[in-house]
From TrEMBL:
Keyword entries, A-Z: Transferase
Top-level taxon of origin: Bacteria
SUPFAM superfamilies assigned to the protein according to its UniProt record, in alphabetical order: UDP-Glycosyltransferase/glycogen phosphorylase (SSF53756)
Keyword Membrane carried by entry: no
Entry's Gene Ontology molecular function annotations: glycosyltransferase activity
A Pfam family recorded for this sequence: Glyco_transf_4
Native organism: Paraburkholderia xenovorans (strain LB400)
Domain Glycosyltransferase subfamily 4-like N-terminal: 15-156
Name the UniProt record assigns to this protein: Lipopolysaccharide core biosynthesis glycosyl transferase
Keyword Transferase included in the entry's annotation: yes
Length: 384
């Protein structure tokens, strides 16, 4: 198959959507497919090239003033590569791919990564819509996406090409006992809840240290909150780390306190390294932790429950050991190969049911005048 993946950028900044797309493109190219990533670029181009994936510069922005230019650029891209499948991972790409053509020869697949956003409903423009967890699929069905157009392919990172042949970073050496989170610095990631929980934990485990690995627009506010709560000396704001495995590998307890989470990739990474995990029971997190078998689930936005769970694991050795032993169990379902196979199956089924190339071929048989055939334009298409 000829496949084009669309996303706003290809930056190595810890964006889970981009990471999933990069893994998928590399695995599909490895399977022998002709794969293109179209984005504004930003850092993963060299990795894509090593795996036989071409990168094409296609800036994408939701600004209305840029729509005409984006549509024109996308039409040129489609005319050049004539894809079987266009796979949009973000809202802008999905709308461009759907609205740029009246008669098209490709199927449009969309993936809903962030169902909590209002714009997620617009991902329903795809011929087939993929949810990254059962929880997201249920939410999208409630938004009116027909179940026959909806499938689930859970995110996974096991065997990611992004870290292939890359040794575990030796530094930094963390202080112990320690709590680690790897997350963007956003309020919705529950960083404030974790700081409040850490205050309570500090009463029980006074020498504990909290490492916050990640960056984002709410970092300054979170640093101010740590000072306000009187724990700034025990909290380390580490900023963005491209390869956070050294932090994960040394975490006595790994925490993901999100208010919303479709299917956090970092949970796979923490499980692979055999960490004791505490996370909120929200979105797709329970699915990523096997319903609580591979991690402790706590209510969302409940710092007291968060502190209790972390404190228990830090002070009860048997409970901690049992959880770390279960964490890496049955991880094959979160392999990037499983993810790739799942999407390729969806591509094939959608192509078979929509048959866009058959419709496009029929359209090109018409004549506008003697001796003049209507062009089989890949920039216009029939609604499928």
């Amino acid at each position: 198959m000829k496949i084009i993946h669309l996303a706003n950028h290809a930056k190595c900044i810890g964006n889970g959507i981009v990471n999933v797309m990069i893994d998928l493109a590399c695995l599909q190219a490895r399977a022998g497919h002709d794969v293109t990533v179209a984005s504004a670029g930003g850092g993963f181009e060299a990795l894509l090239a090593r795996h036989g994936v071409r990168h094409v510069l296609l800036p994408q922005s939701p600004r209305p003033s840029r729509v005409v230019g984006m549509v024109a650029a996308f039409r040129r891209l489609v005319a050049q590569y004539d894809p079987d499948v266009v796979h949009a991972h973000m809202m802008t790409g999905a709308l461009i791919a759907r609205m740029s053509a009246l008669r098209r020869r490709y199927v449009l697949i969309t993936t809903v990564h962030n169902e909590f956003q209002r714009s997620a409903t617009l991902m329903g423009v795809g011929d087939h819509v993929v949810a990254v967890s059962d929880a997201v699929a249920v939410a999208m069905a409630r938004r009116g996406i027909a179940r026959e157009r909806l499938s689930v392919v859970r995110n996974g990172t096991i065997g990611t090409p992004r870290l292939a042949d890359t040794p575990m970073p030796a530094q930094p050496q963390l202080a112990h006992p320690c709590v680690v989170t790897v997350s963007g610095m956003y309020e919705r990631k529950g960083i404030g809840d974790l700081l409040h929980a850490f205050v309570l934990l500090h009463e029980r485990v006074p020498d504990a240290v909290l490492y916050l690995v990640g960056d984002g627009p709410d970092r300054v506010a979170m640093e101010a909150l740590a000072r306000q709560l009187g724990v700034a000396a025990q909290v380390r704001f580490e900023g963005f780390v491209a390869d956070p495995r050294a932090y994960l590998a040394q975490a006595d307890v790994f925490v993901l306190a999100s208010h919303y989470e479709a299917a956090g990739l970092v949970l796979c990474e923490a499980r692979e390294l055999g960490r004791a995990i505490v996370a909120t029971r929200v979105g797709g997190i329970p699915e990523m932790l096997d319903g609580g078998e591979a991690g402790v689930l706590v209510p969302v936005q409940d710092p007291a429950a968060l502190a209790e769970a972390i404190g228990h694991l830090m002070t009860a050795r048997d409970a901690h050991a049992a959880l770390t032993a279960r964490a890496p169990y049955k991880l094959e379902k979160f392999s990037v190969q499983q993810v790739s196979d799942g999407y390729l199956s969806i591509y094939e089924r959608t192509l078979a049911s929509c048959q866009p190339r058959r419709f496009a071929s029929i359209a090109t048989r018409g004549m506008t005048a003697p001796g003049r055939v209507v062009r089989d334009s890949v920039t216009q298409s029939t609604t499928i």
